[in-house]
Every structure is written in C-alpha cells, then in structure tokens.
C-alpha cells in the first residue's frame, strides 16, 4: 500500500473511474445489491441524492462498463462490469472503503486537485530576469 494507505489497484481504479464521493456511493450500492436492477429514482431515495444526479452517475458508470442498463422506460441498471479486473478492483475498493473510509475520500478529493493544479501552473506567467513582463 502506498498513497493514503490504499492498494495500488484501488488507487488506479479511483483515478480512472471515480471523480466524486457520490459516484462511489452509487457504484458500491449497486455492487452490494447486484441481484437487482435500480432506477435513478430508487438510487436517489436510497442515497438521499437528487434523481438527476443519480441518473448522471448511473449513465456515467454504465458508459465506463461498470453497470449495464435494461433499456426500459424508465431505465434501470445493475452492477455488471465488462472487465474482470474491474470486478476485482471494486471488490477490493468496497473492502477498503469499509475499513478506511477517510483515506478513500481523501484520495478521491486530492487526486483531481493535483490535475487541476498542474493544468493551472501551465498558464502562470513568469517575469523576465530583468523584472519586465514577458
């Protein structure tokens, strides 16, 4: 384990697929109850989030190959990753989240800041050596 005490597989999965705590909670809810399909309305009630936010998270997770939709109206989704590596990563993530919730949350919120900071630093204007401007 390294950064934030999280296993490398979990770090890679979060960095690749998870950009918010809400998205993580949606994913873990559907994983924990993989025997059923969930509508956005049901997810919103269970997690106490807006239905539009639940819909956005479900659609995004499905686009990433972590959920599968049933195509109904209203649509419903279930946990069904297309990649066996993702199945293992989510299983490990669920265990780590149960034991080290704060470390996982910290990792989620610090990773995007690193990317934004690096992007912003690319636009910092530096003074010439003589004190003039560019």
Can you lay out the helices and strands and say which pair or pack?
Elements: H1 8-17, H2 21-32, E1 38-39, H3 40-47, H4 51-63, E2 67-69, E3 76-79, H5 84-99, H6 101-121
Antiparallel strand pairs: 1-3, 2-3
Helix pairs in contact: 2-4, 3-4, 5-6
Quick recap:
The protein has 134 residues and is mainly alpha-helical.
Structure description:
- Strand 2 and strand 3 form a beta hairpin.
- This protein has six helices and three strands; from the N terminus they run H-H-E-H-H-E-E-H-H.
- The chain has 134 residues and is mainly alpha-helical.
- Strands 1-3-2 form a three-stranded antiparallel sheet.
- The chain has helices at 8-17, 21-32, 40-47, 51-63, 84-99, 101-121, and strands spanning 38-39, 67-69, 76-79.
- The N and C termini lie far apart (44 Å).
Give the tags.
single chain; mainly alpha; 3-stranded antiparallel sheet; 7% strand; globular
């Amino acid at each position: 384990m390294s950064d934030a005490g999280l296993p490398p597989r979990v770090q890679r999965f979060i960095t690749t697929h998870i950009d918010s705590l809400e998205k993580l909670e949606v994913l873990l809810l559907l994983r924990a109850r993989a025997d059923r399909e969930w509508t956005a309305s049901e997810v919103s009630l269970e997690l106490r989030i807006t239905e539009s936010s639940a819909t956005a998270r479900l659609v995004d997770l499905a686009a990433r190959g972590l959920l599968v939709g049933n195509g109904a109206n209203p649509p419903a989704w279930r946990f069904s990753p297309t990649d066996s590596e993702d199945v293992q990563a989510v299983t490990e993530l669920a265990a780590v989240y149960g034991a080290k919730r704060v470390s996982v949350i910290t990792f989620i919120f610090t990773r995007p800041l690193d990317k934004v900071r690096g992007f912003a630093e690319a636009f910092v204007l530096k003074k010439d050596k003589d004190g003039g401007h560019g």
